[in-house]
Amino acid sequence: MQVFLYFLGTVMIGGLLGWYAASAADGWGILVPLAELWSAYYLHVILHEAGHLLCGRLCGYTLTSFRIGKWMLVRREGRWTFSRFHIPGTGGQCLMCPPEGDDSPIVLYNLGGGLLNLVTAGLAGLLVWLCPLPRLVRSFFVLFAVFGVLSGLANLLPMRVGGLDNDGRNALTLGKHPLKRWALAVQLRINAAQAQGKALSELPEEFFAPLDSADWNDPLVGAVACIYAGYKMERGDFAGAKADLDRLLDCPKLNAIHRYECVLEQRCCRLLLGETELDPLEKPVEKFRKATRRYLIARLRQECIQALFLEHDLEKAQKIREELEKRGQKYPYPGEIAGEKAMLDRTLATFKKSSESRT
Length: 359
Known about the structure:
Blueprint: H1 2-24, H2 31-58, E1 62-68, E2 71-76, E3 79-84, E4 92-97, H3 107-130, H4 135-156, E5 160-161, E6 164-165, H5 167-174, H6 178-195, H7 219-234, H8 238-249, H9 256-272, H10 283-292, H11 298-309, H12 314-328, H13 334-358
Antiparallel strand pairs: 1-2, 1-4, 2-3, 5-6
Helix pairs in contact: 1-2, 1-4, 2-3, 2-4, 3-4, 3-5, 6-7, 7-8, 7-9, 8-9, 9-10, 9-11, 11-12, 11-13, 12-13
């Protein structure tokens, strides 16, 4: 219900803003109001992520990547580069690495984006109120102010949308739960390590030790548990990874995104462990798989393993491996690429050796 109301409210407010922009641009056609709406929205996306960056720096965080739309600036293996990367449903993302220590500051880092949206919206509102402006300029700043208030409140008022906590809910709950703070910090540190070229399997296992006493139903903890299963897979412990994925899938509160990811990785583990009788993917999982194939490199590894052990098509698997190599050249996380390639190369070698022994 919360997701439905959130969507309904967004549609209604967007329609009202579109009507306002169109009426303000009377005589200018439809392009001007559309340009104003688009510009106001994306300016607040940029400002939101800039707010996280500013507050993160104030808390001692270091920048890993800054993405607006599909364009990402990432510190890749020690130097800044531009990459194309996209996560459906997000307009941007600022990822930072927290300072060393077990108790990283999290409240200001989480709230920074929404706070900057509200501050700039307030300044725009003052400008409209105090200064005589041309009609189109005035309409732009009105839209900018409204978008800022909406964006700020949507991120700062604690809520869970689509099974994931927003910035406000994170700030509220992380302060009370050390294990949730650890889960967020370790994800950010892993992201930074992979951007610098370090594979998951190269990380110390102590990174994941707190999982033993954590609630895997929690979205942040569940995400770390998913990563830990990937860590075990990179190290060749497919039985251990499958056991963790089975446990995650038994969690009644696991959100849909993590559940779909677990189903795909569990299927991969089952094939690597010798199972061949697998049911077709359910429609929501298949839809998720297709939607994320363009930006998640793990999908190619999963397809390659299916081609080998379910379809017994070595030629198809090798073509997928070549696609992974090509996409990996521009992928923002070379450590992730290194881990996936190493796992696939071992799997291909094992498959070829097994095929030769049978003949």
